[in-house]
Amino acid sequence: MHATQRESIILDLLAEHGFVSFRDIEAKLDGSPATIRRDLERLDEEGKIIRVRGGAKSVSSSDGQAKADLKLFGTPFHENVVLNTQQKKAIGQAAAQLCKAGEGIMIDGGSTTLQMCPFLQGLNLQVLTNSLHIVQALGGQPGTRVLIPGGAVFPEQNIVLPLFGEDLTPAFHAPKLFMGAAALSARGLMQDDVVLVASERRFMERAEEVIVLADASKFESSSGNVVCPLNEIDVLVTDSRLGDRDASTIEAAGIRLIIADA
Fold first, then answer.
1. Which tens digit of pLDDT belongs to each residue from 45-72?
2. Residue 65: CB partners within 8 Å, gap ≥ 6?
3. Which pLDDT tens digit goes with each residue over 122-162?
4. How far apart are CA 158 and CA 109, in angstroms?
């Protein structure tokens, strides 16, 4: 791929997202990491982008003002939350049973992870989450302490994410991270937006165990930005609609599979 083609792809990604991680640039371009770094350095010197830790951000966003119109790719929360609700509630209950009283956990935003909240009552947990829906759901539970990272609010998902690759997550380490997925396949866990991918990777770095909550419909699509390969997932909680082929793929990756009865 010629340098001008790589440059066009990088600028298009930044026009869409405002920030793009090095990992996602590398996935989109036909070039070595060294070549991509040189591309980013050249574009930065020419004033077309701004290099930041872990990737690049657009010049138009360099005034530090959060873009009011910046949206995440993917299905809006209000549409997602009414899909497969029976299965999601069963998955949330099964996932909550993995928590131990008094421990600290992380819960990534999502319509399935939200379903854990009623079943965490009385466990006296400390919870780090980027979801304002989860903050609200846990806020009335005596003994539950809730922390949120810094960043901008994305209204369609009601989620807090750093815009430009900054690490604004509290110095928090947890034995368990509970997270959702836009899609799952042999390629790994996927999300629709690179900004969300970067945030989830930061959560994963702070967790000893990664627990994915995903109803079986998430195996019907295999497109998106890869958050992690399957071998970085420790536990998958899903429902009984999971097909035999997908179950075999999960178990072959060494993932503990929990089927929640809806």
1. 888 888 876 778 777 654 444 444 456 6
2. none
3. 999 999 999 999 999 998 899 999 999 887 787 777 788 77
4. 9
